[in-house]
TrEMBL record:
UniProt lineage: Bacteria, Pseudomonadati, Pseudomonadota, Gammaproteobacteria, Lysobacterales
Name listed for the protein in its UniProt record: YbdD/YjiX family protein
Pfam name, any one: Sel_put
Length: 70
């Protein structure tokens, strides 16, 4: 099936929203939002790569600790 690129491009925002929603439902915050937060509120901290971010968020979720710094 050949789908025109215009159709695919029009679906991208909805797809990104669906993926973000699914991640939030599973307890995984948005990495891009996390990076923006670190840069705006904690410029002295090093920004972890996605793998480290994911591991830390998963650990925080399952150990019952809070996931918020502010």
């Amino acid at each position: 099936m050949n789908v025109p690129m215009q159709v695919l491009n029009s679906l991208k925002p909805g797809w990104k929203w669906a993926v973000q929603t699914a991640r939030l439902c599973c307890g995984i915050p948005d990495y891009d939002a996390y990076v923006r937060h670190l840069r705006n509120h904690h410029p002295d901290r090093e920004v972890p790569d996605y793998k480290a971010f994911f591991r830390e968020r998963q650990a925080a979720r399952y150990r019952g600790g809070g996931g918020r710094c502010c």
